[in-house]
Amino acid sequence: MIPTAVVARLAVRELWMSFRLLILLAAYLGAGALVAAVPASSSTVLQRLAVALAIAAVAGSSIAAWSLSHERGLGRLGWLVIRSVQRRTILMGWFASLALVTAAGVAGAGVLGWAAFGGPTGQTSPTVFGLAIVASAAGAVALQALGLAVGSVLRPWLASVLAGALSAIVIIGGWVALPALALPVEAVADLLQLERPISISLQGAGASLGVTAVLLLVAAHALGRADL
Amino acid sequence: MPAGARLLVLSDPERSASTLLRILGGLAPAQGGRIWVAGLSDPTAEGWGRRVAYLGPNVGLHDWMTPVEALQLAGELLAVPAGEAERRADRLLRRTGIDRATAGRPIGRGGDALRQRAGLACALLGDPEVLLLDEPLRAIEPRERTRLLRVPGARRTVLLASRKPTTEVGLVDSLLYLRDGGVRAQAPLSALDGAGLPLTRRGIAELSDLMAASDPLRQAAG
User: Chain A partners of B46 at a C-beta cutoff of 8 Å?
Assistant: First the structure.
């Protein structure tokens, strides 16, 4: 088995045993369930779903920062490094495990949101809605990469709080202060008003993945110089 | 250092010895210079993990992991063939005093002593040429600790960083004393006996002063 997969398997098990996997899944599924449980008009459902996904993404960033920093502090990353596992491989393993859980959570929230939104009424197609949700997942993964970058250098609590705060600033700042820029969650909220929802979702997903790559490079650089 | 040496590393300030071993193990970044361990200068090089092992005061094993799982994971990461890894794991579990029942229980339930025994077993799984021991096995009773740390292998080089040199009797044959970022003394343990000094921090510091006083090059350097 390739080392990244070994680390990812280890990370998923650690997330599971420490309940962080459940918390992350519950954040997304809870977001979807909350939206589904409270009746509202289609546009309100979409706005609520977007806000709930954004809150869950902030939680995900916080959990990512805590996880990497905690593992570093306990010498678990060092235990892997001394066994010839590259630092960037450890980072990618943790990123893959967190992204996997996030993808599952966002997918669940999307299904619940689609049911609450009344997808079958024909206001928008499943493809358009699905792409907006995929873009949201890409945005959430970018925030996790931010969390990993912060967790590479800071202590767990500080990293967790800072990653959460930075993620919240990115989302709120982007949503409120930059109306010309369509964040992925913003695309979900305004799905019914968008003229070109598919292209906006694809742009959001692409930009998020680009940002993810840059943040992972930053995290790899920071982890490469860290004392494990 | 010649292969097969068993070196006690002490330092003033005390943390420096640990830092040196962490740098040698590739865990901490060096500010400059280059190191060679077991013929390799790059801790990320292929085969590093099979040639060099590090055991520190904090063994980074997950609480939920059992000693058997930890050894399986170590074998997988070090690319030890499965059958051979299993044989070595059985032997190391016996050697580190982990019985069959304990080997199947989560490490977190066994406390620090079990964690450190499992850590030593994992460190020895790859049959490393160089063993870096940084304040190892402090949670284990001294006599048992000494037994565990008498690692066989005439060609195996052992560096042992310790703040309590009196507890390392019988484990090392030479010493390295670092002070203010430099090597102040490197000598066989017999040099301490020859000078009538005990194997204590103070004794080693005095030996260092004696060696400096008798070294004309150092005197000339001021």
Answer: 84
Q: List, as one string, the DSSP characters of B29-41.
A: --SS----BTTBS
What's the CA gap between A94 and B27, in Å, rounded? 19
Nearest CA in chain B to A3: B77
Contact A228 B28 (CB under 8 A): yes
CB B29 within 8 A of CB A227: yes
The helix/strand/coil state of B67 is helix
Q: Is A2 near chain B, with CB under 8 Å?
A: no
What domains lie within chain B, and their CATH numbers?
Answer: 6-220 (3.40.50.300)
- Is the Cβ of B118 closer than 8 Å to some Cβ of chain A? no
Select from B52, B60, B76 the Cβ nearest to the Cβ of A6. Answer: B76
Give pLDDT tens digits for A93-151: 999 999 999 999 999 999 998 888 775 566 778 888 899 999 999 999 999 999 999 99
- A158 with A62: CB under 8 angstroms? no
Q: Omega into B43 within 30° of 0, i.e. cis? A: no
**A14 reaches B (C-beta below 8 A):** yes
> How many CA atoms, within 13 angstroms, populate the side-chain half-sphere of residue A172?
8
Question: Complex ipTM above 0.90?
Answer: no
Whether B54 sits inside 8 A of A225 (CB atoms) is no
For chain B, the straight-line distance linking the first and the last C-alpha, in angstroms and rounded, comes to 27
pLDDT digits (tens, 9 = 90+) for B7-51: 999 998 888 999 999 999 889 988 888 888 877 877 777 777 778
The alpha-carbon radius of gyration of chain A (Å, integer) is 18
Considering just the CA atoms, what is the radius of gyration of chain B in Å? 18
Q: CA-CA distances (angstroms) from residue A111 to A24, A33, A126, A135?
A: 17, 10, 10, 15
List B182's β-bridge partners, or say none.
B179
Contacts of B43 in chain A (CB under 8 A): 81
Q: Which helix (H) or strand (E) holds A141?
A: helix A126-151
Beta strands in B51-196 (DSSP E): 52-55, 130-134, 157-161, 174-179, 182-188
Token pair belonging to B33: 């210079």
